[in-house]
Amino acid sequence: MDILETIAPALPEPAIGAAVPRNPGTALHADWFDAVQVNLSATERRAGSYGARRSVKKQYQAAWLVKAIQCIDLTTLAGDDTPGRVHRLCWKARRPIRDDIVAALGLSDAPPTVGAVCVYPAMVGPAVRALDGSGIPVASVATGFPAGLTPLPQRLAEIRYAVEQGAHEIDIVIHRAQVLTQDWTALYDEISAMRAACGPAHMKAILGTGDLRTLRNVYRASMVAMMAGADFIKTSTGKEDVNATLPVSLTMARALRDYGERTGHAIGFKPAGGLRTAKDALTWQTLMREELGRRWLEPDLFRIGASSLLGDIERQLEHFVTGRYAAATHHALA
Q1: Which three-class secondary structure state does DSSP give residue 141?
Q2: CA-wise closest residue to 234 among 169, 152, 188
């Protein structure tokens, strides 16, 4: 079966505002993905059509960009992160758009905030304190990020530490060698153990798609991660040579759709790495809307992992409000 042979019917969409039940996972069903083929040229052609189409304009574009802000996991994953840097990031997360732009957009009564702040486990405590009372969740990478090659007991301990520090979401890294050697049982068992270690925290499974070699591997890894209980599947760590791309994202969206049709469970999607401009945000939102439906534009089912994207979105919103483009330095850095 080629995942691009037919356009499958849209998934039943959870109502906007209704809580999305957590993914309970399933047993490992290799027959759900063993026979699947991915036509590379067809996938690239379909994916390329999103950025080439005429985008939404004017007030509609502004509305989509505000929605994109609400789906950003505002991220710092640098070796020189400090509590002070995390505090500044959290302040920007609370007020991602300047107050005068918020007022001009008519959003003063309900100013937008980002979807989450994403940090290393050691920075979870400072982030939780800085975001206290804001309602913004803290996400933590874990499991030997970015390579995921530390022993499993250490990876599980890192998850538990981040949860104990107050992380609401855990971005785990899969063992890519298990995909490359097609050891699906080992991959499933490890991700299942990670899901158990997360407890109440939602788990995003980072596939490291730039290391997986083929789109067929991307599809297979997506399905195994969802079967093992992932609440989100995520493209990349942002540290690979190739991170989020449209063909990879389309392949993962089709896996999400297939899993949802088989189980009835809505799973989230997070592209990360390489999304830097407002146009990138609009392109990925279009992909989500067309492949999965309107509900996948909300932050409980769609996140964008980014550190610099917010600045360009704010700049575009200022242009909408004033008719002028400001220099990037005119906006506070995240």
Answers
A1: strand
A2: 169
Burial of 85 from C-beta contacts in 10 A (0-12 / 13-18 / 19+): middle
pLDDT in tens, 163-220: 999 999 999 999 999 999 999 999 999 999 999 999 999 999 999 999 999 999 999 9
Q: Is 171 a catalytic residue?
A: yes
Write down all domains in the chain, each with its CATH number in brackets.
Answer: 30-330 (3.20.20.70)
| Residue 270 a catalytic site member | yes
Choose the catalytic residue: 73, 92, 171, 231. Answer: 171
Q: Which residue shows structure tokens 């937008």? A: 112
Tokens of 279: 């146009």
92 is catalytic: no
Please give the backbone phi and psi of residue 257, each rounded to the nearest 5 degrees, phi first: -65, -45
Pick the catalytic residue from 234, 280, 300, 312. 234
Which string of DSSP letters, residue by residue, matches 248-300? HHHHHHHHHHHHHHHH----EEE-BSS--SHHHHHHHHHHHHHHT-GGGGSTT
270, 280, 300, 312: which one is catalytic?
A: 270
**pTM given for the model:** 0.94
Measured CA to CA, the distance from residue 277 to residue 312 in angstroms comes to 6
- Closest Cα to residue 144, out of 208, 71, 217? 208
